[in-house]
DNA sequence: AATGATGTCAACCGCCCGGTG
DNA sequence: CCACCGGGCGGTTGACATCAT
C-alpha cells in the first residue's frame, strides 16, 4: 500500500502497518471458522504474521460484519454528544449504543469535532482574557464589588451549587469550562441519574422500555425539540448550529431534535 | 495551479484489569 | 497471595484526502 517507510520493520517478528487484502481474507476466514477470541493464537493459526492485538483491532474496527461505513448521521452525532455528556470518553460504552459503529470511529469523530471547538474556544478565551484585563484596569480606576466568580456563573449558567451531586463528567466539565457550554447538565435533562453507573442502568432500562430510536432520541421531531411545556435549552456549538431540548416537567422524557 | 491548513481514518502504543496457575 | 498473560480500552500518531487561500 501507501508509503510504508518504517512500518515494514518487524518488531518481535510481527508485521505492522496497513493490512493487505490477503491478510484481511485470512483473518476473516479464520474468525468465521473459529469465532472471535484467542487472538494471540489467531495470528499463528491463520498464518498471519501479526500480533494478536493487531488482529483483534483489525477485526473489531474493520472486518467485523455489520459495520456501517461512511459518515455518521446527524442522529448518531446527537447520540454521541448525549452519551459523551453522560460518560465522558467511554468510547466503547458509547459505541454499544450505536450499532455498527466502533469505538475508534466515535473517538475519531469526537476528537475531530472537539478539537475544532477547543481551538475556537481558545480564541474566545484569548478575547475573554483581554476583556478581563481591560476590566481590571478599569476596576483599578473605579473599584467594583463584583468578583470574577459571579461573572463565571453568568457565563457558565449550568454550573450550580448542586454540581457536586452530579456525575463525574460534570466535574470534568468544571475543569474544562468549554465542555459546560456543550452539554446540558443531567439536571437540565431531568434524567434520574446520580452516577455513571446509575446512568448506564437507567439508559439500559430506558432502551428496553421505550426503544432507543423512538423514545430517548426523538429523531423525527420537526420542531427542533420543544417539549410539551415549551421548554427549550439551546446548546451552543461552535462548529455546528446544534439545538436540542430537554423535558422540563420532571419527566424522564428527553425530546431532542438536532439541527445540523 | 500551487501550497499550506485542516479533516479523516486506520493503526499502534501503553496502561489497566481480570483470569489463571 | 502473587506473578504472568491476554484482552480491552483510551490516547496518540501518521498518511492521505480535501479544502481554502
How would you describe the overall organization of this protein?
By secondary structure, this protein is mainly α. It has a domain at 21-63: Arc Repressor Mutant, subunit A (Orthogonal Bundle), CATH 1.10.10.60. Helices cover 53% and strands 0% of the residues. The model is unreliable at 1-11, 141-196 and 206-260 (pLDDT under 50). The protein binds a DNA duplex (21 and 21 nucleotides) through helix 3 and helix 6. Keywords: DNA-binding, Nucleus, Repeat, Transcription, Transcription regulation.
Briefly say what this structure is.
The protein has twelve helices and no strands. It is mainly α and 260 residues long. The structure holds a DNA duplex (21 and 21 nucleotides).
Q: How would you summarize the topology of this molecule?
A:
Elements (H helix, E strand, L loop, with lengths): L20 H14 L4 H7 L6 H12 L10 H14 L3 H5 L7 H39 L6 H8 L12 H8 L1 H6 L3 H4 L6 H15 L1 H5 L44
The protein binds a DNA duplex (21 and 21 nucleotides) through helix 3 and helix 6.
Key structural traits:
Arc Repressor Mutant, subunit A, DNA-binding, disordered N terminus, mainly alpha
Amino acid at each position: 500500500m501507501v508509503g510504508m517507510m518504517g512500518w515494514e520493520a518487524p518488531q518481535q517478528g510481527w508485521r505492522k502497518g496497513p493490512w493487505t487484502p490477503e491478510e484481511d481474507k485470512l483473518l476473516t476466514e479464520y474468525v468465521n471458522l473459529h469465532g472471535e477470541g484467542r487472538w494471540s493464537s489467531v495470528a499463528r493459526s491463520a498464518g498471519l504474521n501479526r500480533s494478536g492485538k493487531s488482529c483483534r483491532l483489525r477485526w473489531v474496527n474493520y472486518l467485523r460484519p455489520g459495520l456501517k461505513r461512511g459518515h455518521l448521521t446527524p442522529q448518531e452525532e446527537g447520540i454521541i454528544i448525549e452519551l459523551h455528556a453522560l460518560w465522558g470518553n467511554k468510547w466503547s460504552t458509547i459505541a454499544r449504543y450505536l450499532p455498527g459503529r466502533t469505538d475508534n470511529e466515535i473517538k475519531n469523530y469526537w476528537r475531530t469535532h472537539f478539537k475544532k471547538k477547543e481551538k475556537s474556544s481558545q480564541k474566545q478565551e484569548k478575547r475573554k482574557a483581554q476583556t478581563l484585563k481591560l476590566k481590571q484596569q478599569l476596576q483599578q480606576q473605579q473599584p467594583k464589588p463584583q468578583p470574577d466568580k459571579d461573572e463565571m456563573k453568568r457565563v457558565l449558567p449550568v454550573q450550580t451549587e448542586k454540581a457536586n451531586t452530579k456525575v463525574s463528567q460534570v466535574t470534568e466539565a468544571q475543569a474544562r469550562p468549554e465542555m459546560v457550554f456543550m452539554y446540558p447538565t443531567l439536571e437540565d435533562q431531568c434524567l434520574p441519574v446520580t452516577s455513571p453507573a446509575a446512568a448506564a442502568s437507567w439508559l439500559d432500562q430506558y432502551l428496553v422500555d421505550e426503544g432507543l430510536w423512538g423514545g430517548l432520541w426523538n429523531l423525527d421531531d420537526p420542531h427542533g425539540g420543544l417539549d410539551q411545556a415549551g421548554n427549550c435549552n439551546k446548546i451552543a456549538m461552535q462548529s455546528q448550529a446544534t439545538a436540542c431540548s430537554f423535558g422540563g416537567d420532571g419527566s424522564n422524557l428527553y425530546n431532542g431534535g438536532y439541527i445540523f
